[in-house]
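FORM 7B: Structural annotation worksheet

SECTION A. Query
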Amino acid sequence: MRLIDQEIIQNMQRFDIPGMAFVLADEGGAIYTKGYGVLEWGSLGEVDSTTRFQIGSISKVFTSLAMMQLQDQGLIRLDAPVTTYLPWFATKDSTLSDRITVHDLLNHTSGLPGRLNTHVIKSTSSERIAAQIKHKLQNVQLVADPGTAYEYTNMNYDLLQLIIEEVSGLNYPDYMHHRIFQPLGMHQTFFTQDTAGLDQNSATGHRYIWGHVRPFHEKLAYATLGSAGVSTSAEDLGTYISFLLSGASAGGSGDPIIQASSLRRMHTPSIFDSSIGYGYGWEITAHTIEKKGGLPGFSANLIVVPDKSYGFALLANSKQNITDETNFNIYRILKGEPPRHLAKGDFPAVSSINRSLLAISASLILIIVLIWLPASIGWIRKRTSCSLIRPTIAVILFCFVLNGLLLVSVFYYIYVHIPYLSGASSLHQLTTAPDTVQGLTLLSIVWLGLSISIACKSILRVKAYDKSRQSRPSFHLDNKLGPDG
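SECTION B. Predicted structure
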């Protein structure tokens, strides 16, 4: 295991990751577990195998497990329309959305757009959550006919959470705790809203802010628990991996969580996108079943290798793609292959997009300075005066109308279109990309300054100050209406 330790530690140091935890397990349980680093930058608390990390979208494979359990119990049918369990469910074209099945939600083949989520829904009431989702969906157009195309969206699993509550009569956290986590022996696994289950051995999330790693605290909405809300440890994920490899029996009890045939179905691709198959929350390749997870402050990667009867997971309290790449390197090590070198330059702390935003803003600031610098120098030295002039039709069209339309377009794109595509209610709710939010905000302010500068400059005349006049320079309206004007 020395090579695994070395791979993890060197990448933590190279990419400023505060803490990580790793587990390797087979059918009999954990083979190797270890924690690395600290719970939070500057703290003395060390990560160990029982430290809890938020695992983001890996939560989906637990939600799909619960759905298969309900199917085995005869409480749901996977081929049934979603409206069987959520009668209010409808998109803009209800004739299409009526065809969406539970199976489609599980496999991301519902046709719901990828931008949809429930992050801004604050309620914990199923009725209120349902009402807000119904409102959110009423103008949504499907991107494809149900069952025909893969389109990943958190909304699919947010809806599954409501179905679990509807058919079981329990709230989602209680169902998962009593019917999934406890029978599996996952005693360190809770939901992010369950503060009673969290203690001092819970990792703090971190993310890059313009190249510097900073702590980040986020409390997920109740409505998103089914798609992203699980907090667990490396040790518990080892227990889960053993369950997956042993064929659907709870740890130590022999009681089935789900039928073995249902577990096999979960790991069989239902649809392919390029060379990767997708099914029930999993990404399925020729030799592995995998799941990645990420939140603004955390990242996690789980890989199971059924034909070799082992699986492993890597958790990190920092939102970086390097967690996935490190775990892929661990897979290479376990296969006896050399790991790929992960150069810092290939994973920049500030993305090219955000660098471009800064460069564009800096260029616009320079233009503004050049627009006003000559006049400013003249005013400071008292060598120039300025006066207002009546704009011509050409000036009005270019400096006011066209300039104004361009300003409105830029603001619309930044503050309306980008949040819409991202599924956020506003730009500043886009917590997954803090640098981009700040960069776009700066760009909008600078663009506003440039637009005002262009408009003002077009109606100002700057001329040399007549030194023969004893009075101070005047600021007056240069009137060209005639002698009576």
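SECTION C. Observations
Confidence is low (pLDDT under 50) at residues 473-485. Residues 106 and 280 are 5 Å apart (CA to CA).

SECTION D. Sign-off
Analyst initials: ____
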